[in-house]
Each structure stands twice: as C-alpha cells, then as structure tokens.
Amino acid sequence: MLARALIRRRQAVTTLAAPSRARSTRSRALLDELGAGAVAAEGVGRARGSSKNAFVRATTANGNETLASAGDGGSTSSASSSSTTSGGIMVSAAHPSSHPQVLAVPLPRRPLMPGIIMPVKVTDEKLIAELEDMRNRGQAYVGAFLMRSEGSSSSSAAGKEEDAFDALTKRTVASVGLDGEEEEGADPSDHMHDIGTFAQVHNIVRLPADSPNGEESATLLLLGHRRLRKLGTMKRDPLVVQVEHLKDEKFDANDDIIKATTNEVVATIKDLLKTNPLHKETLQYFAQNFNDFQDPPKLADLGASMCSADDAQLQRVLELLSVKDRLDATLELLKKEVEIGKLQADIGKKVEDKISGDQRRYFLMEQLKSIKKELGMERDDKTALIEKFTKRFEPKRKSVPEETVKVIDEELQKLSGLEPSSSEFNVTRNYLEWLTSLPWGVCGDEKLDIAHAQEVLDADHYGLEDVKDRILEFIAVGQLLGTTQGKIITMVGPPGVGKTSIGQSIAKALGRKFYRFSVGGMSDVAEIKGHRRTYVGAMPGKLIQCLKSTGVCNPVVLIDEIDKLGRGYQGDPASALLELLDPEQNGTFLDHYLDVPVDLSKVLFVCTANVLDTIPGPLLDRMEVVRLSGYITDEKVQIARTYLEKAAKGKSGLSDFDATITDEAMSKLIGDYCREAGVRNLQKHLEKVYRKVALKVARAKSTDTTLDPIVIDVDDLVDYVGQPPFQTDRIYDETPPGVVTGLAWTAMGGSTLYIECTSVESGEGKGSLKTTGQLGDVMKESSAIAHTFTRGFLQSKDPGNDFLQKTSLHVHVPAGATPKDGPSAGVTITTSLLSLAMDKPVKPNLAMTGELTLTGRVLPVGGIKEKTIAARRSGVKTIIFPQGNKKDYDELSEDIREGLEACFVSTYDEVYRHALDWDR
Ligand code: ADP
Fold first, then answer.
1. I need a labelling partner for 61 at 20 to 30 A (CA). Which of 144, 648, 747, 857 fits?
2. Which architecture characterizes domain 739-916 according to CATH?
3. What keywords are annotated for this sequence in UniProt?
4. Are the C-beta atoms of residues 386 and 412 closer than 8 Å to each other?
C-alpha cells in the first residue's frame, strides 16, 4: 500500500515537473518541521553543471554509477550559484579528486549516513572559523567521522563520547602549540573511526556561549554524500585528514536475493512506519523528493538511518561496501526497530489505557454527582450527613442535657471541616451516629394497668407468683406516683424455671421495649462500659447499644447469668455493673465511648442467676432478689398441660391433629424422665414425643391412609422417649445403719443426697474420721464438728459405747461429680455417725437438714422450698428442719407441703429423738 502510494506520489511529482523551486520550498518547510532530527535528503544531487540541480535525483538504475554521475561537474562555483537561485538546501557533490584532503568533523554520536541530513554540534573554535571561512568562499565540504567509543579509542579521555570529543579538541589545540608547529605524539585522528562520510555543510549556526568556560560552539547541518576512508593526518588545529573516496561494491540489481532483500527492507520500513510517525514524515519526504526504493545501497543507508541502533552497529553499516551485506545489516537493524516499536506501542497503550480508564471514571463520577445534584437526589456526602444528623437530633434537642447538646454541636462543626476520606472523619461520623440516635429522654409509652399485666403474665407462665406479685406491685406504685422509676429485680433459681422467659413477659405486661444480654463469662469491662473512641473499631457498651436499638430510655433490660460474670485482666466487669445497677449512680452512667452522661434510671433491670453465692456482695446489695424454686410434679403437670404441650405441638405442626398424652403417661414422664427442678427438660421431652407423632402423621399422609387420633399412654412412652434414665437420688430403698438422707441446695435446685458412714478399722486409740465426695471446706469442718459432738453425745445416750474412740471412720457423700459445700449437712453427718455407732438405722423415709454447733444447737439453713420439693420428689415422708426455718416452711403453698411431715428442732437432742429414737 505504502509503496503504491509512494509510486503514485512520485508519478505526480514527475508530471508536475516542478523539480526545482516548488520542491525545494516544500523540502525546506519539512526540514524546518523536523527540526533537529536526522532528515533524509537525497544523498547526491546530480550537478551536471546546471544551476537548477538542487534535489534532482542522482541515481541511475545502477547504483554503481552514483558516484560518477554525482561527481560530474560538481563544483564550488556551481553550488554557490545554485544557492542563490533556490535559497534551499544545496545538494552538490564535489568530485572526489577535488577533495583529497578534508577538514575532519568529529561526530559525538551516530555516524552520518550518505543521503541523510544531520545536525552536529561543534565546539572547536578554530574548526568553526575555518568552516565559516570555507562557506564564505563557496561550498564547504568536510569529512564527518564518528568518534571511537571509549573502549576502542586510543585516547585516555574518559566519560561520555561527548567528553572524549571535547577532550580531543582541547588536546588538539594544546598539542599544536602557540606557533602552530606540529608536535610529536599520537595521531589526533586516531580517536575517530577510519570510515566516515564526505559531507556538505549546509548551515553553520553559532550558538551563544553558554558553557561555563565561555566556549564558543556552533551547530552544523551536514548532508552526507558518500563514504570516505581516512588515510592520515595532514594538519592539526583544525584537523585536516587525507582521505580516499569510497565506492559501493558492484552488484547485480537483478539478483534475486538483492531484490528480495530490498523488498523486505521496504516492507519492514512500512511496518516501522505503523509504529513511528516521525519516520513517516522522513519517508514521505524522502519519497516525495527521490525515488530510491529501487536503489538498494541508498535504501540500505536510509533504513539504517531510521534505526535507533547503537553507534557501533550503525558504523558497521557505514563500513560495509558490499551492497548485499549492507542490506542484510540494515534489515536486521530494521527488524529490531520494528520489535522495539511494537513494544513501545504496547507500553504506550497500556499506560494510555490506564490513564484513560482513570480519567473516564473520574469524569463519570463527576457527571453522576452533577446529575444527582441536578435532580436533587443527593447533596454531596458531607452535607447530606450533617443534614441527616441535624434532622435526627433537632426534635430531641430540648430533652438532651445541655453539655451533650454542646458536644453534639461541636462534633457537627468539626465534621463539616474534615476531609471525608480522613480517618478522623469516620471516627467523628460514627460518634455522631451514636450520639444522635440515642433516645435522650424519649420514653416509650407504658401500660400501668394491673389487670392487663396480670392477664399477660398468667398467659405466659404458670405459678411464679413471687415474680408476678413483684411486677404488679411495681405497676401499682407507678400508678399511684404517676411515674415509674427503674428497679433492679434479680431472679434466682435453678435452670429451666422460667427466669428468662418471664423477663420477656414482664416487658410485655408493662408495654415496654425488651432488650436482653448475657454476662455469663464476660470478662471485658468494655462490653458494659464501651471502648475509648481512640481505639480502632471502638464501640459503646451493651447498655448504649440497648438504648439505640430500643430507641427509648425506659426499656426492660434482662441481664442473664449475672452469677457467672467473668473476671478478666481488663478490669472487673462486676464493678462496671455496679455503676450500672446502682440507682444512685445510673442516672449519670458514663460510657467510655460516649463520654457524656446517660440517664439509665428509668430502665427496669431484670437479672437472672442460678445461685447468689457468686454474685459480688456490693452488687447483690443493690438488687431485689426474687427466688424461684423448682416445680413439684403437680406444677409441672400444669405447666406441661397449659403451656408446653401446646407449644410443642405447634412446633411440630400438629396444632390441628388429635394427639394426646394420658395423665398417667404425663406423670410418668415427669416422675421418671424429668425430675429436675425446672421444666426445660420436660419441654424437650414433649417436643420429642410430638416430633415422633409428626413423623407418623407425615408417613400416613404420604400413603394416603387416615390416621386415628393418637393417644400416648404409659406403655408407649418407651417408644417415644426411650427408657427412663437411672435416677441417682434414690439409691437405697431402706437405709442401713450409718446412711442418712440429707437435703442439699445446689445451682440445679434442691436435691436429696445420702451421707454414708462406715468403719474402716477399729482398735485402741484408732478413733479418726476421713471424708470423701467433693466436699468443700465448710462441709469438712461440719464433719469435724459432727465427729467431736457425736463422741460427747453418744456418751450421754449410750454410756460405755466407745465405738467412736476405737474406730477409724470414713464418711462419703455419693454423686461425686457435684461439688458440695455448706453447713447444712451438720445434723445429717452427726446422725449418720450415731446411727453407725449405735448400729441402728434411722427412721425410714426421713430426710434432714440443719447446721449444727459444737454444743448441739441446730441453726437455720437456706433453700427450704427447694429442699422440700426435692424431698417430695424422692419419696421422703418426714423432714427434720431447724426451728428457725419454720416460717419459711409455713410460707410454702399447701400443695408442696401436702403429704409431708415436718419436724422442727432447735437442739440435736430433738433430731436424735425423731431420727433414731422414733420407735420407742
Ligand atoms: P431459665 O431462664 O430459668 O433457665 P427459661 O426461662 O429459659 O428458664 O425457661 C425454659 C422454658 O420453660 C421456657 O420455654 C419457658 O417458657 C418454660 N417455662 C418455665 N417456667 C414456666 C412456667 N412457670 N410456665 C410456663 N412455662 C414455663
């Protein structure tokens, strides 16, 4: 394509037949445009003595003739006359014979290819003067030689080639001396390559002396004509060398290989043009003015001049007189150039892609912003944020404490001055997000209606009268006062008795929002009091989160498992809770994150715990404790029938299906499978039963059989829930001497336990006592007290019985997995020792509890209700309680006490009578 275009262009030029003026003006313009770049120009103008010879193609079909034809008639006079006619670049090739010696111009980089125009900087003042002188006399011709690179130079001048060049010119000046006489020494022309280019000086432009040492310099515009070999130095300062003008070796223009190589060079130049537009101009110019595409040696020179190869490679091309070799070398350089060009284009494209991608995104974002603004959809982020916060905060402004208002205003101010991408902006934004979304005195509506509350509470829970009463009282006080204050109610009881679920019902009864969190195992104070804002990812504590999520300042907050509060290295969460739960302090609760006081005094706190022992004293002091003991069988039946069964059926998708559990089966389920204090296990068992029923129903449905109503009786239970688990609380049907049933109160509720005593060995002075069964310190002390007391007591009851003095005893409390501690086993241990010593079993179905002093007094203990329930569960008929617990027992409801005989004692003597002396 390109070749064709070029040919067309050439034809056009020929037909226009404007060889001289028109072309020269255009070429000058192009030259100006290309500036300092190497410009291809026809190497040799055909002089023929004509004054209009500028830019006339010089070559014939055979390149060999170039020199001869270029040479004829070329003279300084004709050249100078032509310069006056055209005013453009003069191309006139002086005959070799007229230039056996030439001024040597050193080229710091890139050799000058014949046919090419190249600017060269010269700093040698004498050389410049001489050149100017020559030009004034007519045409100036020089020999341009590439400086040898450092490695190949005989000069010791180090550094860059330009430095070498400077050094050379200086040395040349120095070595010539003042009188101009030649001095012995190295040939100054050694620093140049031997093969150079015979060149015409077109222009000499003096440059202002800007170098620090004030050296003169000038730029020469050289047009290469033909190859030269330097033979020797004729004169120094300026350097004049003897030269031999070289001709290209003869070649056969019709040789296939030459043709093919030539074509390939043209094709490669074409390729090169695709990637490098600068070359395009060069070539266009070349093609417009000359027709060298059929002239292989010229083409090779042109191709080489287009390459960015290093000086050595270009010099090699210059030195090759064999046309074929030169074409090959050029082709190699061109191919490399094309590769580099591709790589360059690739890199350029990548960079461009990236830049344009980024720019595109930027423009699109800007556009989006302005579109949004235009449509009023969104103000810019910051303004929108500030507006949001202000809008949220304004309605509350009046109820917010003054100092908090100040903080919020300051923060809003700060936010407006911050850069949205800064981290500070985010911190402030989050802080404002919290500050503005807290309720700040906004209370939720409250239902202070006793009847309604009673209804709601009863609807969800059976029994639990203490808790329900407490809530009703709370409402009553609120009604009378016209306002409610926060309270802290703590429910203590075994698992599964409904502590958590009634918390929820309380909120429902009062019409308040509900929030629950568990502090079991919590060891980090920050969970309650928040992190300081300086921490990355800082958050307020649970209470502030609660206020935000409920949006009111008077929710019911259930703090679960308060007895299992952890204690970590990050401070003591119990103390933090203290601040929260102390009615004196929680009006101005200070969260670390929020840093402004928050009023929590309207919050109704409900805490749950299994035991009270582990709740820190000061915390316990601020709570109202409501005890929930476990349920007896009748209560469980009630709960199961009214609440759990319905829920379990519903969960299994059996609400509409007729499936029932008979009363007997229910009693067995409760009595044999779910004997613990709470009803969670019962709930699980009922769910299990109904899941199995659901499977049956689903199977029947899939086979399209109609199913009769399912009735689950005692015998079916094994199918539904398996065999009843082994019950450890009744090991003995009848207790042997030395074994007594005690009553204990643990985190799981009340339970019966056996205290076993047996003799290990006997002998004079062997009386001792050993205890096992996970007993704590208090219980071990109780054993020691019991042992001492029993010795004395036995003497009074059975004088002469020296069993205790002579026998080493072992007391054990089975159920070794459960840690047991507390003083309430005192009377039980004593009784077991006595029973063994007297070899007399205690009254059947008897259980006892009570602390014993060394003098035999029986002191009251805790957990009477739990113990009573546990005793009943284990089939105990008679219980011995300390006299001090009579009031507790009397408070128990009738159904718990039903069928039980309670004996109240204040001294051990009475215990003895009930337990060991009962049959008298
Ligand atoms: P806790 O918090 O005491 O361990 P939960 O409150 O989780 O126990 O109660 C366990 C389950 O037993 C809940 O589904 C609850 O509804 C049920 N439950 C407990 N006590 C009663 C009750 N008195 N009446 C009705 N359901 C109860």
1. 144
2. 2-Layer Sandwich (3.30)
3. ATP-binding, DNA-binding, Hydrolase, Mitochondrion, Nucleotide-binding, Protease, Serine protease, Transit peptide
4. yes
List phi, psi (to 5°) of 167. Answer: -60, -40
Which region among 160-164, 515-519, 706-710 has the lowest average model confidence (pLDDT)? Answer: 160-164
User: Which one of 324, 508, 865, 867 is the catalytic residue?
Assistant: 867
Alpha carbon nearest to ligand 1 atom 15, residue: 498
Delimit the domains of the chain by residue range.
101-149+189-245, 256-338, 381-437, 450-627, 633-721, 739-916
Catalytic residue among 78, 305, 824, 835: 824
Pocket test for ligand 1, best of 508, 680, 681 (most atoms within 8 A of CB): 680
Report how far ligand 1's centroid is from the alpha carbon of 678 (Å): 7
**pLDDT higher than threshold 60 for residue 23:** no
Mean model confidence pLDDT for the chain: 79
**What's the whole-number mean pLDDT along residues 199-223?**
78
| Residue-wise pLDDT tens digits, 258-313 | 889 888 988 888 888 777 767 776 676 666 655 556 678 888 888 888 888 888 88
Residues 6+ apart with CB under 8 A from 728: 814, 815
End-to-end CA distance of the chain: 136
User: What CATH fold (topology level) applies to the domain 101-149+189-245?
Assistant: 2.30.130
Higher pLDDT residue, 569 or 139? 139
Distances (CA, A) of 489 to 210, 461, 503, 623, 626: 95, 18, 10, 6, 7
For domain 633-721, give its CATH number from 3.40.190.10, 1.10.357.10, 3.90.180.10, 1.10.8.60. 1.10.8.60
Output the six-digit token pair for 435. Answer: 């500050």
Residue 184 reports pLDDT greater than 90:
no
User: Residue 50 pLDDT > 60, yes or no?
Assistant: no
CATH of 450-627, one of 3.40.50.10190, 2.60.320.10, 3.40.50.300, 1.10.287.3510: 3.40.50.300
Q: Using a 6 Å cutoff on CB, does residue 495 contact ligand 1?
A: yes
Q: Is residue 824 flagged as an active site residue? A: yes
What's the Cα-to-Cα distance from 207 to each of 163, 216, 220, 305, rounded to whole Å? 19, 7, 11, 26
Residue 175: its pLDDT value, please?
Answer: 41
Tokens of 466: 């203490």
CA distance 874 to 868: 10
Please work out whether the CB of residue 629 comes within 6 Å of at least one atom of ligand 1.
Answer: no
Query: Considering the domain 256-338, what is its CATH architecture?
Result: Up-down Bundle (1.20)
